[in-house]
Write a structure and sequence with these properties.
single chain, 112 residues, two-stranded antiparallel sheet, 5 helices, alpha+beta, 4 strands
């Protein structure tokens, strides 16, 4: 999904997402375990859970975008560019038959 989002922003003619994305360090249990250890925590309990979120229609994707922190990025695009990004990303989902989004998470807890 992030490739779809990025391609839409590029097609919108504006690049708003920088190379620094700190959340990408925490996408698997081993990385999150290292983060806790590096922070001085005792042995953490870390668990990955795969999940999906169904899309009744590809347009639901845009509702999700506007209900998250990406809304600020969309607002920075301006109305015309946001319409282009929406059309590109929803069009990509529609043309590729995307009916669900991955919603994988990694949970962790530890004591210091």
């Amino acid at each position: 999904m992030s490739a779809t989002r990025r391609s839409g922003i590029f097609r919108g003619g504006i690049y708003l997402v920088g190379a620094f994305r700190p959340w990408t360090r925490l996408t698997d249990p081993a990385a999150l375990t290292r983060l806790f250890h590096d922070g001085g925590a005792a042995t953490p309990t870390v668990e990955a859970e795969d999940g999906t979120h169904p899309l009744a229609d590809p347009d639901d994707w845009w509702k999700i975008v506007l209900g998250t922190g990406y809304r600020a990025t969309v607002e920075r695009l301006g109305a015309a560019a946001a319409r282009r990004v929406r059309a590109a990303s929803v069009g990509h989902l529609r043309s590729h038959g995307v009916a669900e989004l991955r919603t994988n998470v990694v949970y962790a807890r530890a004591r210091r």
